[in-house]
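Tutorial sheet, problem 5. The two components below are modelled jointly, 1053 residues in total.
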Amino acid sequence: VSFLLRDETLRYLRYADQLLTAEQDAQIDSAIAEVIECARPRTVHRVFDLFEKDGFPAVDAAIDLRFADLRKLLTDCGSCLLVAGTLGIEIDRRLKYFAGFDMTRYVIMDAAASAYIEEICDSLQGALPFQQMTFRFAPGYGDVPLTMQKQLLNVLDAGRRIGLTLTSTLLMTPTKSITGIVGIGRDDQNRNCSSCKRYETCEYRRNHSVCYQTK
Amino acid sequence: MLSDEIVPHKSARERLLAKLGQVPLVFDGGMGSQLQARGLVPGELPEAYNITHSDIVIDIHREYLASGSSCILTNTFGSNRYRVEESPYTLDEIIGAAITNGRAAITLENERCRKEGIEKDCFLFLDMGPIGQLIEPMGSLSFDEAYLTFREQVLIAKNQVDAILIETVSDLYEMKAAVLAAKENSDLPVFATMTFETTGKTLMGTTPATMVAFLEGIGVDALGVNCSLGPKEIAPIVEEILSMARIPVIVQPNAGLPIYSSNSTTYNVTVEEFASYIRDFVQSGVSAVGGCCGTTPAYIKSAAAILSGVSVKRRHNTAFTRITSGSKCVTLGERVMVCGERLNPTGKKKLKEALLNQHYEEVLLEAIHQEQAGADVLDVNVGLPGIDEAAVMVKVIKSIQEIIVLPLQIDSSSPDVLEKACRIYNGKPLINSVNGKKDVMEAVFPIVKKYGGVILGLTLDENGIPPLAEDRLLIAGKIIETAESFGIDRSDVIIDCLVLTASAQQKEVAETLKALTLVKNELGVHTVLGCSNVSFGLPNRPLINKTFMAMALYAGLDLPIMNPLDKDLMSTVDAFEVLSYKDVDSSRYISRHAADRTGSAATVKNSSNGALSGNASSGGISGRTEHETGRSDGEMTLKEMVVAGMKDLIAEKTKEQLLYFSSMQIINEELIPGLDDVGRKYESGQLFLPQLILSAETTKLAFSVLKETFTAEGKQGKGPILLATVEGDIHDIGKNIVRVVLESYGFHVIDLGKDVPVEKVAEAFLTYKPQMIGLSALMTTTVHFMEKTIKRLKECEGICPILVGGAVLTSDVAREIGADYYAKDALESAELAQRLIK
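Model answer (structure tokens):
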């Protein structure tokens, strides 16, 4: 288990330096290790050249990027990366399994799975031959509606290629999955929490933290 | 448009099936890639081209036909109601246009062939791809909705196509919905292919063996693999399928692995390489070939050319007895397989109550324990007086299949229950049972034939259980013959020669074993026995049981139905495998018994082996006071155990304390103060979430001990509280955490689960009359359902307080949608519940 994955898992659990015994340490590691063993990570991505249409960014694909927050994200970017990743369905089954009789392990594994899929997509992006990229923006952030998930997954053919689908209420299944839009050509890791729907009630913010990984 | 030279479709079916398996059938290539090459933009609905660019679609079909395809697929891969509703067209329009385009291309090809004096028979297949939503329990689309989605496609097309191809499916359950829709609503031939990964499994975990067993059982005309990978990577999967399948096999690989560049996708296998793989496939026994992503007409042309004069190799595979779940296949005879008998309420008070009160968590725990103990198959029996057996059976099967991948044995004496269960079961089940009675066989065999399954036959008939082995053999023979007359292969029948109790019918114990050996040797089918009855009425039953087990295994028993939690019995099976030279090099035995030093096997995993599961040596979670650490558990108070999360020890300690204190004293002076302490430490940051939950789980265990005394003391648990994650929402971790925290405070919680329809919540309110209802929702898209649920609940007379929580909620939103309370986390929910429910 990498330090990074462990740290991220603990961050999702709002860990704030409570001391752990050696045994508890090992047990957290074992839960994370089980996530890694059980996960079947898969990703799919495509890079599109960006052009401007009616003052908004656009690509040659059936996806509507006409939103202020995307205009901001993709400023000065020549192309953009559309990406989706999932840990697969087995991890959902496993989480549900533990929910019945070992809730403690269940919550640790749930957090570890969330951290792991982020790590998978980060390392995918890291391996791409682009020097400068923005942070990963997802439908549902800012003024971009969740309905964009449909277009994004269709463009990537994510259902067929990695088994990532949406419910009729636009939730991703398998649940441990992420999607994203990344600008290529400009280094921008400055996310802004102020437009987040959870801004007022955010537990991370209350603890002077953020919900995403900081470089 | 149907032209005159098209022969009526009834005979198209016969012509197609006559060719299948005799000459290689050549299908077309990747329609999607061809459309993209001609202007389809990524993400656009390819099926809209049937209407907007019918010339292009016809031309692509025509090119494939001219390249040598005789079977083409309508451009309807994603033509289902969910995908089409995003377009301006109706499903009828799109499928109708797709068929017209396909027929037009075939007419053109027929004309070309006539002119050139070529004799060629072309077939149009309705193409059905996956719906694009996961079916419950893993997703939220119901099995019936999936079935109806495929059904409407079949109904639109059935009179105008020659056959149906269901393709690129990863989920066996979705495949089942599609095959049933095709077979129940048309008499067209059905071909079915799934898509695999380099791991040798589909994205949903289905193995080739599982697919073959399932699709042969449900009765498709050809099965195989498409898309997935290139021909090279697909070859081992094809080989595995060919080694098992007893019906024609179809293979449609991609043009290699994709190489993505900025705005295009290419594939890494050349036209010539592709063709040579295709020839190898046919020479190994594949009956129908074609291509998927990236296979242009050039690929098909090259493949068709190389196949001229090549005949399909005949295969003669032995029939094996296989039962499956959606992903796992159990082959009888590979080794002794253990069927867990414990999911059966007979003689089990706790399970009986759990089923009657719909507390399915209890039932699931029973399944989990058996799986952990090493069972290969689980028997499911929910037969109880006063229960809706079919409904409960369906519910229990779905719940088990959500978390456990073992194949199930559906156990009921009612054909109606068997039918309903077989319909929604994911995989090829073991069906328990028929016997030699004519009316029973006539009621059950059609179900086995329709859905596929292995049937368990009991050697008794209208005259009861014959005492002599030879007479039981006769009944077994009659069962197998009758099954065959219904079109069920004898490999899909296993025989139970029936164990009698040694105390009452001592002489007949040997007859059972004799019959078992006879059935196995003379009829060549596998054998099954429910073993534990043999010892009934005798002292030291385990001794009789394990001795009988060894005898039965030696007599040829393949599938004991037994208690897998009985370590001695399980160990007897393990040891038998070694001594009978089935467990070669004793590797399985060693892996299961290496840690066992006492000589009596103890491989049953402890269910509380999870992270942070407390025990005496790990007592000192930081932030807990020093004197709590390093103490032996004997000195710890219950309160301290709660704080330290001593999950493994608290039940014993609680029982001990009950000798001195009343349950109310224990709750008010130990458990609740302990929880309050944990709550304070959590709030102040001395403990974090997993530690809070561990304490909650620990307290919950103490409460379950105390609950047993409640009934004796005439008290009830507090509550009940109803919890649900609202309709449309499948994220339930928040609700689950709230549940365990509420339970730790002694509340009786009824958890309706996730994605709970509005009406179900209202019904549950009326049934259970809870004192509080908690609803959770994660996304903005599902808060809307929360509002609907609250509105519906408020119409109910005497409605209780409604509490809401979840990621996107705030106190303001909660007020707006009509909730009575908002809780930011599980502890706040518990505080509120304590205030509201006295």
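Marking note: The longest helix of chain A spans residues 103-126. Full credit if you identified this.
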